[in-house]
Amino acid sequence: MRKLPALTRNQVRAIDKTAIAEYGIPGVVLMENAGSRAAILVNQLSPPGPIEILCGGGNNGGDGYVIARHLQLMGRSVSIISTVPISRLKGDARINAIVAERAEIPILSIESESESLAAPELGRQTVTVVDALLGTGSRGQLRGRYHDLVEIANLHSGLRIAIDIPTGLDCDTGRASTPTFTADHTITFVAEKAGFKKNNADKYVGVVHEVCIGVPAKLLATFQSDEAIQ
Fold it and tell me: Diameter of the chain by CA atoms?
């Protein structure tokens, strides 16, 4: 199958929506595929030592919970900092957060700005920080806990890996928020995102790795033209 062009925010949404509604693939299955395959790369890229995953309140955070579970299965020491308590999560993200909690993966929920400024678990022992805070739907300046955690992560001396897109980077325009997660590697799903090649976004995405999430080839073929669903 020919390589897909870079995808816009609307194309990403259309692929997910069509895979679920017309092909009958549950969203939780797509999330499992994305997270499990991303975890393989995180494990390969990360040096020995503890891995910290920053999880937001949406599906990008849900991917992070899946990644954590699979890294645990690979024998890695992994923990999570979440911007939202599990009780307030919804849908597929909530399902995977509950599984991670029951798997006894350490989860620290940041419920106030003062807590996010402390972020006690993001310390010197962590060798890799994984950004699963915000996905392709995010736009505009980061605020509150997201702003603080990205700022802290960017000061960390270890490896930094973004999931799907660095938090703070606009999917379509490549414009960077202040701050934006500065990744050494970005593990992106299905295809690169349109903003990766714009506005010097390459300094935030680092090395890009594309990961298949099990979307049928028939569906992806409809997006092989740059003009498809702009």
Answer: 49
